[in-house]
Write a sequence for this structure.
């Protein structure tokens, strides 16, 4: 997976083929090769054309151009088959390796939009803790977590009511809010400890948005984007057997991947759009209730 910083492994064959295909777009190249082929045939059998081109080997040139066209078409098919990344869909449980890759950069920038961010929180905690002993190449870390405003009435999370209709559950919302407050205070406290050592500057911030948690977005160093949809109908049974709640399970969410490093032009544009999307939502988001 992509990660920040300079250097890195050489592009694989799939990446090199994609770059080749992007430099020589199929319609243009095919038109040129067919044009050479047709011109060669015409020059062989139409004397004025042959005289104008002043060449005696038109047929051979035409046949060579036809061979080149066939080879190009085969190459284009190979490029098309290699265009689909080997892993375009991952599980939220696989975040560990991606967070680790992000922390191998000098400047680390991790952003999140979703539910409670518990899966990502656990990974961030361990990575920040390691910075206390061994910062490695990392010199700056910025973490921004955007979660729902659990102080507002919500249909998800909510209690499962008659006919499976959601009923707002203030008690459950307060429980989730306390959990996120603990995450925020833990990460912020750890960030301060790391920053006080003077080797790495770390900031961790939480903000809230108004609405239900329907999607999960993770951005790593503005180069790698993960996006998936929560199952908003997922249920959880509480200690009270008669009380069931709608509670999306983030760790079960599958995530599509876009990589802006060594990816296609489409991937690069997609990553840029996701970054702008997050920055816009972050600007209009509010401070959580537990912060002044």
């Amino acid at each position: 997976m992509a990660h920040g910083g300079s250097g890195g492994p050489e592009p694989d064959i799939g990446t090199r083929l994609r770059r080749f295909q992007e430099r020589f777009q199929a319609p243009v190249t095919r038109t040129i090769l067919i044009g050479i082929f047709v011109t060669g045939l015409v020059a062989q059998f139409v004397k004025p054309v042959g005289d104008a081109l002043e060449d005696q080997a038109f047929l051979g040139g035409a046949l060579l151009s036809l061979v080149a066209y066939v080879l190009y078409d085969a190459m284009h098919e190979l490029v098309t088959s290699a265009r689909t990344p080997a892993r375009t869909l991952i599980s939220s449980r696989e975040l560990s390796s991606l967070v680790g890759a992000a922390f191998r950069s000098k400047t680390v920038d991790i952003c999140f939009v979703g539910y409670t961010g518990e899966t990502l929180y656990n990974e961030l905690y361990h990575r920040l803790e390691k910075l206390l002993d061994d910062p490695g190449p990392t010199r700056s870390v910025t973490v921004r977590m955007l979660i729902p405003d659990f102080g507002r009435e919500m249909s998800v999370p909510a209690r499962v009511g008659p006919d499976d209709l959601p009923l707002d559950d203030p008690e459950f919302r307060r429980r989730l809010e306390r959990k996120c407050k603990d995450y925020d205070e833990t990460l912020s406290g750890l960030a301060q400890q790391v920053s006080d050592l003077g080797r790495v500057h770390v900031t961790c911030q939480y903000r809230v948005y108004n609405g239900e948690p329907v999607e999960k977005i993770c951005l790593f160093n503005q180069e790698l984007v993960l996006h998936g949809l929560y199952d908003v109908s997922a249920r959880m049974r509480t200690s009270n057997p008669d009380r069931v709640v709608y509670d999306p399970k983030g760790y079960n969410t599958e995530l599509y991947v876009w990589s802006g490093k060594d990816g296609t032009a489409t991937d690069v544009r997609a990553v840029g759009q996701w970054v702008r999307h997050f920055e816009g939502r972050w600007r209009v988001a509010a401070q959580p209730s537990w912060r002044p």
In short: Helices lie at 13-23, 26-45, 47-53, 58-83, 95-102, 118-131, 170-196, 265-284. The chain is about 45% helix and 20% strand.
